[in-house]
Amino acid sequence: MTLKTSAPLRAEPKKKKKVDPRREQVMKDRLRKKLRKLQKVPPEYIPIEDFVTPVSCMDETRQRSRPRLSFDESDGRALLLKEWSLYKQKQHMDEMKAVEVALEAQREALDELKLESEELYQAALKPDPLLFPFSHEGPAYTPPNSTYEAPDGKYNDITKVYTQ
Hints:
The chain has 164 residues and is an all-alpha fold. The protein contains 3 helices and no strands. The longest helix is centred in the middle third of the chain and has 46 residues, at 71-116.
C-alpha cells in the first residue's frame, strides 16, 4: 500500500463573463473596418534595386576549380558518353525508319485508292480542318501609315525615389 498525499481535485468550470451584445458588435465592426482598410492598400513590392547582385560576387576571379579526375574516372566518363551517343543515334534512326515506313504505306494506299476511285482519291488528298484547327487572318489591304504615332497609353508613375 502506498500513501497518497495529493488533495482530491474538486474543480468547477470557469464561469463565462457576461458580454454586452452592443460592445461585442462594436468590436466586430472595428475588425471589419480594419480588414477593409487592409484590403484597399495594395501590397508593397520590393524595389528592383534590391535584386542587384553585389559587385563582390561578380568578380571574374571567383571561379570554382574543377576537381581533378583520375585517369580511370575520365576514361569511364568518355566511354559512357560514347555509349549514350550511340544509343541516341540508334533511337533517332529507328524513329526515322518508322516515319519512312508509315509514309511509304500511305503512298501505297493512295495509289490503290486512285486505281479504285478518283473521287475518293481527291477527297483523301484534301486536308481535314477538324484534325488541326487553324485560323489565320492575312495582311491588311492598306500599308501602315508612316506618320502615325502610337499612343504610349495611360499610366501612373509610382516610381519611388530613394535619397541618402
